[in-house]
Amino acid sequence: MPEGDTVWRTARRLHAALAGEVLTRSDLRVPRFATADLTGRAVLDVTPRGKHLLTRIEGGLTLHSHLRMDGAWLVYAPDERWCGGPAHQIRAILANAAHTAVGYRLPVLELLRTADESTTVGHLGPDLLGPDWDPQEAVRRLTADPSRPLGEALLDQRNLAGIGNVYKSELAFLAGVTPWLPFGELPAGVPERLVATAHRLLEANKEGKERRTTTVRHPAQRLHVYGREGRPCLRCGAAIRKAEQSDDRVSYWCPGCQSGPSPAPADGTTQHRPTN
């Protein structure tokens, strides 16, 4: 699932393939920009911003893309077979003499003036993997709405940019609370530690192919709770649970290790566990 670390790696791969080279082919397969022709222009850089990708192009233009749930940018050599999906899923092609970058299933793709980038990414909070990372500002934004559930606050890119469903669930586990606990009920010092842990985990995973939040080396135990519904917790052995939290997003948690409220059951009542 593309989160801040995945987007960072994608930007680095695209930058290595495209930056400093003149485009020999450009094909934007979205109606609004289908007639745009970027051939003959040099790519200046490819920069990640949270979960957004900004491909800056000579002449003051930026190609903005977002991977969302299953988008991908793949880079191919001239004689390499494209294998990212069927042709109808291709949304963008950028090529130079040595490489071709193909964007598959991109839900967001737009060409804008570089000077107007703030209209698409200006709302974002501090970028966990960016040069503007500011942990104090991230904590300030997260704590501004104390009634908001932890999971929702972490997913809000206006608070801090780069966290998705995986890290949301893992961070809640590492903090020892459920994703439904109101942020203002976190014990003193936990918001700061939570933000520091988020930064540490994304930094540790940005270079790797397999995301890992545990110290266990077994390939099936890379994560504490995410994707492990019904399996035993690596710490206490309780069965990991899964439930929707908001906007069809899901959260995973361990009922043995994490204190705080859990989702309402079918009868509409609210379940709570005492906070530590």
Q: What does the model show?
A:
InterPro entries: DNA_glyclase_Znf_dom_DNA_BS, FPG_cat, FPG_N, H2TH_FPG, Nei2_N, Ribosomal_uS13-like_H2TH, Znf_DNA_glyclase/AP_lyase, Znf_FPG/IleRS. It catalyses: 2'-deoxyribonucleotide-(2'-deoxyribose 5'-phosphate)-2'-deoxyribonucleotide-DNA = a 3'-end 2'-deoxyribonucleotide-(2,3-dehydro-2,3-deoxyribose 5'-phosphate)-DNA + a 5'-end 5'-phospho-2'-deoxyribonucleoside-DNA + H(+). Its EC number is 4.2.99.18. This protein has 6 helices and 10 strands, in the order αββββββββαααααββ. The protein is 22% helix and 20% strand. The protein has 2 domains: 118 residues, MutM-like, N-terminal (N-terminal domain of MutM-like DNA repair proteins); 119 residues, Helicase, Ruva Protein, domain 3. It is α+β, with helices and mostly antiparallel strands.
List the keywords.
single chain; 276 residues; alpha+beta; N-terminal domain of MutM-like DNA repair proteins; Helicase, Ruva Protein, domain 3; 4-stranded antiparallel beta sheet; 6 helices; 10 strands; 22% helix; elongated; disordered C terminus; DNA damage
